[in-house]
Amino acid sequence: MSVETLKRAFADNLFYTQGKDTSWATRRDYYMALAYTVRDRLFHRFFKTRKRYFAKDVKVVCYLSAEFLMGRHLGNNLINLGIYDRVNEAVRESGLDLGKLIELEHDPGLGNGGLGRLAACFLDSLATLEVPAIGYGIRYEFGIFHQAIKDGWQVEVPDKWLRFGNPWEICRREASVQVKFGGHTETYHDQQGNPRVTWIHDRTVTAIPYDTPVPGYNTNTVNTLRLWRALAGDDFDFQAFNAGDYDGAVASKMSSETISKVLYPNDNTPQGRQLRLEQQFFFASASLQDIIRNHLRLHKNLDALYEGVAIQLNDTHPTVAIAELMRLLIDEHQYYWDKAWYITQKTFAYTNHTLLPEALERWPVSLFESLLPRHLEIIYEINHRFLEDIKTWFPDDEDRLGRMSIIEEFPEKSIRMANLACIGSHAINGVAALHTELLQKHTLRDFAELWPEKFFNKTNGVTPRRWILLSNPKLSELITEKIGDGWLSNLDQLKQLEPFVEDADFRRRWREVKHENKLQLTQYIWKHNSLEVDPHSIFDVQVKRLHEYKRQLLSALNIITLYNRIKENPNADVFPRTFIFGGKAAPGYYMAKLIIKLINAVAEVVNKDPEVHGRLKVAFLANFNVSLGQKIYPAADLSEQISTAGKEASGTGNMKFAMNGALTIGTLDGANIEIREEVGAENFFLFGLTAEEVQSTKVQGYNPMDYYHGNAELKAVIDRIDSGYFSHGNQELFKPIVDSLLHHDQYMLLADYQAYIDCQEKVVEAYKDQERWTKMSILNAARMGKFSSDRTINEYVNEIWKAKPVKVESEEYDSNNAGLNVQP
Ligand SMILES: *Cc1c(COP(=O)(O)O)cnc(C)c1O
């Protein structure tokens, strides 16, 4: 595939596909033409891969996830296809700039944060490891909202990401399936006289698949991301229509189509909305029907379904699939219960993503009954049989039965999706060592006691292709110059960088790369926030969803502490720092939105106070998403991973930062613990209570007031917020924050405050010694091999999915021999 061929294809796509010539093409037309050029190259490997899987009858990993936060496709596809440099050249010779075209792609935000991004990293690693896989999800018409900041407040703007079309997807109308809802059930007797149940539904919705090719890095494998779009079912109400009820018929059509309209913007806080349950069932049912249809193309029945597929549930969102597979097997494929249950359990595995009790999904039984009456019956039957077993294994243990039951009785009769997921799966995993341990000890303790062999830990990872090579080309070039490019498919090879910490010239170049990345971010901040920041200052960064447990507020308390020191003594020794924040708050999460307002209010005061003399700057960057992350992680000096211990399941942002040479200030939470183990305690800024100490402090009775009265500097910080200093004298505005800190402090900011402030001083001491800091930075990056999602996926493949890689042979596309050859 020569530069000449690429140039030619680019021009042809502008002309024939986009329908423009250079005299009136817009920048977006050029982007589209380039995207089609790259897509054409993907398709050959895509079809080859499908044929290969079909011919070999391989086991396919089906990753069910309500969210896939893929990020922009163009740059990543160029990298994985190995044509970045050639396309760069072709675009340059065409008089354009590849970097600018890449920026024109609308970042597809079909996820909230870490969970959705994990699914995207997993698809990249599955294809790279040549594992047959398909991601199933929902093609939301509106992804996560666009965040604007107005007067310091978050404003949500709809994300019309499909407005100009999406060149990376292909609609497969012929593979549509029908998804049923509502109605009631009836029993009858089949020809053998056995009792059977039919579901007399009252509504169907058509699920149309849209496929996005997912290429592996340096392989010929191109897997599929299949996202379902809802369309009014074929039983569109023609009766109403013909009876003259046009409005009614259209309304019912519209309501069916709202199912895939919008992503719920809540992270870690489910809201029991009917439409959300409809979304979950919609994609679970569509995906299962697709899986079964594919299986029956090669097998005469579903007896060995679990040898053909492994279905992974990314959190409980797709868990209704367990009841749906039982229904399909029993009601539609005439299996008896026991056999159906055996197949189901062997097919599913469940990943838990949270320890927050309020984040565990529960659905009111009444909602299930009206929407999925047959599934409710099946869940009751699963529960009945399960509890009978528990009674024999643990006689006279009513409490245990109550805890393990799928049905919760109070305050409202509801279905505990995590319990259903545990009972219906053969494997259950947490996403970091501490998280898995806490699941086994607390959240899922009864299940871990019952089935210890079902529990696994699978510490998260991220793909180094997007998060190092694409995001940080300068660092990648330096690394490759020293150790070759093998690290991109085997991240453990980064270890080979360790000897270079003693090489002063290498350290200087390492620093230069970081400085150039900081300069680029400086320009971004100037452009978007009209704020001048000093690239020689410490770039202290916290970017992630806004959540009280993540404690963005603790970082704000540190900023105000430093500010107070300056106000106390303008000559105080305060090292220059730029505090960079980014992250969206759920639109209904009042406290999180108020924290954004506080950060911006502090920024307004601190950034323009002449006494500060530019030593402290605060920048809240609007609309944090994957593409903004790609600019931020490589420019960070300090990574803030400061959640209350025991609350963050894993974190993956922590990994992206460290891979790009940032040092971490963090608590013993989630994957921070394992990152610290890998990089060495001496290269990690640790502070704060442990998860156990958090627990025991709570049990003993935690009183934040004691800390407030016992710490003059802390008191001055809170008093300054309370005084209205950051709110133009308005003492009401931030009162909810002050009250929450002083009277509840659920996440123990005050208990960790002094340790955090002290630790930040250690950060400054280390930073002042640039050679020492650089060594620590290099060692962090060099020791991050474990946190490649390739390692994570290998573990899932070998220990849970029992799937095998399949090589796809290469076949260079020959455009001179592209005539059809249709077999009659
Ligand atoms: C990695 C990532 C996250 C997860 O960040 P955490 O710090 O682990 O919470 C969230 N959003 C985006 C856009 C990301 O890229």
TrEMBL record:
Broad EC category: transferase
Keyword Ion transport attributed: no
Record-listed N6-(pyridoxal phosphate)lysine modification sites: 656
Keyword Transferase attributed: yes
Pfam families tied to this protein: Phosphorylase
GO molecular function: glycogen phosphorylase activity; pyridoxal phosphate binding
Keyword annotations from UniProtKB, A to Z: Carbohydrate metabolism, Glycogen metabolism, Glycosyltransferase, Pyridoxal phosphate, Transferase
GO cellular component: cytoplasm
Cofactor field: pyridoxal 5'-phosphate
The protein's Enzyme Commission number: 2.4.1.1
A GO BP annotation: glycogen catabolic process
Reaction it catalyzes: [(1->4)-alpha-D-glucosyl](n) + phosphate = [(1->4)-alpha-D-glucosyl](n-1) + alpha-D-glucose 1-phosphate
Domain of life: Bacteria
Function comment: Phosphorylase is an important allosteric enzyme in carbohydrate metabolism. Enzymes from different sources differ in their regulatory mechanisms and in their natural substrates. However, all known phosphorylases share catalytic and structural properties. Allosteric enzyme that catalyzes the rate-limiting step in glycogen catabolism, the phosphorolytic cleavage of glycogen to produce glucose-1-phosphate, and plays a central role in maintaining cellular and organismal glucose homeostasis.
Family as reported in the entry's similarity comment: Belongs to the glycogen phosphorylase family.
NCBIfam families referenced in this protein's UniProt entry, alphabetically: P_ylase
Name the UniProt record assigns to this protein: Alpha-1,4 glucan phosphorylase
Native organism: Lusitaniella coriacea LEGE 07157
